[in-house]
Automatic annotation (TrEMBL):
This is Histidine phosphatase family protein. SUPFAM superfamilies: Phosphoglycerate mutase-like. Coiled coil: none annotated. The lineage of its organism: Bacteria, Pseudomonadati, Pseudomonadota, Alphaproteobacteria, Rhodobacterales. InterPro entries: His_Pase_superF_clade-1 (IPR013078), His_PPase_superfam (IPR029033). It comes from Paracoccus stylophorae.
Length: 194
């Protein structure tokens, strides 16, 4: 058995809780909107009230600068302390603005290969992870992030690698991870209001 040292002043705490809330339903008219800045439908007042109670008190709130994330944070009455461009959704390049049924069919790809795939002019999931993880891994206190499905999957990749792409992430859903020392664990995924 290894004895765990308690952090001293100035050290990263031994346990950090990371709560990531995907923004409310994006108003995209059925089109893919990664970096496209669109509004969110924040009309489900009961769902927002339920989610605010489920999240509870948080020490620190960060958000993607995307309008749909900031609107979601506002509807939750949990305004961010800061925004970070590292939390933007994946840039889908030439696929941005395409109707979902017009997106190219990549066929069945193993998770690692899918994670490397980069749409023309855009980012791969691996690119998204590379820009997001330094921020997530640097968190030293309990934090709520209002972000995107890609943000949630990037966080999950700290535990399951590229298989994170297989997780469903509903709008206005909460995912919770916990870090003890350097190790992350998944506490809950895709929690939604009843």
């Amino acid at each position: 058995m290894v004895a765990r040292k308690h952090p001293t002043k100035g050290q990263t705490p031994a346990v950090t809780r990371l709560l990531i809330l995907r923004h409310a339903v994006p108003l995209t008219d059925g089109c893919l909107a990664g970096r496209t800045d669109v509004d969110a439908d924040c009309s489900a007042v009961d769902a927002f009230d339920w989610m605010r109670a489920r999240i509870g008190p948080v020490q620190h709130v960060l958000s993607s600068p995307a309008r749909r994330c900031l609107q979601t944070a506002g509807a939750l009455k949990l305004l961010p302390d800061a925004t970070s461009a590292a939390l933007w959704e994946q840039d889908y390049g030439a696929w941005e603005g395409l109707a979902y049924d017009a997106l190219p069919d990549l066929g069945r790809l193993p998770p690692a290969e899918l994670a490397r795939h980069r749409p023309e002019g855009g980012e791969s999931f691996d690119d998204l992870v590379a820009r997001t993880l330094p921020l997530l891994q640097g968190l030293a206190r309990d934090t709520l992030i209002v972000g995107h499905a890609g943000t949630v999957r990037a966080a999950l990749s700290m535990v399951v690698g590229p298989a994170a792409l297989s997780f469903s992430v509903a709008p206005l859903s909460l995912t919770v991870l916990r870090r003890a020392g350097a190790d992350w664990a998944v506490e809950a995924v895709n929690i939604t209001a009843p």
